[in-house]
Sequence to fold (172 residues):
Amino acid sequence: MATFFLTALVTVVVHNTAALPDATVTRVEANVERLFTGSGLTVTWAAAATAADGFTIHVMIRRQPGGGPGSESPSATGTTIGEDHSRGGVSFVFYERVVTLAHRYHEPVDLILAYTIAHEMGHELLPAPAHSPSGLMKAEWDGDDIRRLTTGGELFTGQQIALIQRAVERDR
Ligand SMILES: [Zn+2]
Fold:
């Protein structure tokens, strides 16, 4: 069956347990949408999810820099739990670490937060381990990586885009 490139829809529920201002969340969501535009993925933001929403990603923004899942790696800015992401799943973003990373490379926190959320969404959308040597799905970003990401460098490879499309289409 032919698939129209721009029909892939993903529902994302942001759980703002870090109590970020609404305006910040709105800006970050707009940035995340923009990051996925080139992948033909349309992101729908929801306050809650139902089974009818299909592929759904829950993003929990946490403020605690210590504890929580994924905290084993001290530099990780987020983590995605579980192995089966055939219908989406749950990702955590460590806000304090996002702030630290943003300050280190003199980038807006909103932007690095958007990259981090998009990276964790990538873990839901791509087969494990999902990491690539460059781009948004690189395991850890250094200054050069962030410079490339912010100056129009490739976010996802062509293969990753195809896999993202397939992940969402499979659940329609
Ligand atoms: Zn990762």
Q: What stands out?
A: The beta strands are 8-15, 41-46, 56-62, 78-80, 88-94. The radius of gyration is 15 Å. Residues 109-125 form the longest helix (17 residues).
